[in-house]
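User: My collaborator sent over this chain with a note saying "see what the structure looks like." That's all I know about it. Can you take a look?
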Amino acid sequence: MHTQKPLLPDGARRTAAWCGVVLLVAGVAAVAVWLCIVLKTAVTPVLLALLGTALLGPVHRWLTAHKVHRSVAAGLTCAALVGVVGGAGYIVVTALIDTGGQIVDSLKDAGQWVIDHFGVADDTNVDDLADNAKNLVEKFGASAAGGLLSGLSLVASLLATGVLALLLTFFFLRDSDRAANLAHTLAPRGTGDLVEAMGRRAFEAVEGFMRGTTFIALIDALFITVGLLILDVPGAVGLGALVFVGAYIPYLGAFLSGAVAVLVALADRGIVIALWVLGVVLAVQVLEAHLLQPMIQSRTVQMHPAMIMIALTAGASVAGVLGMLLAVPLCAAAFGVIGELRKGYAAPEPDDGPPPSPSGG
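Assistant: Without extra context I'll predict from the sequence alone. Here is the result:
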């Protein structure tokens, strides 16, 4: 019987199949992003609550291990979160308010120094540059806030989002033991174990990222603040607070906060002190890259710096500053799911059969 020859060679058919898979995944991802944007009022507190749960999970587990009721442990953990975040926020805001004017004046002086020493056009005014930068920031912030808050009051919306995220964090912590049963209930038949493993791996990746980033941010801010205080740079505490906040945006945040510290030192203390500040910032970054990151985040999903920058750019285009904060932990969770899928669908090793008997029979 004559067999009809395939229209396309085997390689072309495989390529077409993979292209179809890529298009399907891209379409599903696009619809998911679109739904997140449309439902951002509900999605944002959920994502923030997941990050808070990942950060506070070890504390809640420690309390429950010491015979504390799950609801009481969740309440105590959330109360501790409010205290720590509120205290840290108060310190950061107070430091930036107290030294913000001095930092801005130093940045203006640094800009004028650059204009004077690098032959920039004489009609360039540093005040005009500052005003233009301020207008740009205001426009960016207005567009981001308008897109995220849909015309609502900024303060009221942030307060409502924070309260809702805190309540969701409480319920996520209290009912975390039911997550496995939920995964088995919602998963298609026969895939419950795989769905549970993917969920656990994704949450472990986010948990490790949040703990590691927070600890690294504290160390970076402490070392840089001490260095700035020793060098007598104005606004050292405010700059250290800026370093701590910026550490949650990998690479970009450290670069911007370090550049601000160097420019402030350049304007107020001269080029020699500015070079010393640059050395302090670079030393802290080297310590973070070669010691802290491998030690603290060795159990989390490791991503290439290029992938992190792409994720930050995509997050900023979707949700502004909030998108930049959420982009990396979401990518870490996605890489954890992909790794678990590869492990679950890996081809089993071939069975060579039982070893031959000594008699040779």
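A starting point for your reply to your collaborator: Residues 70-117 form the longest helix (48 residues).
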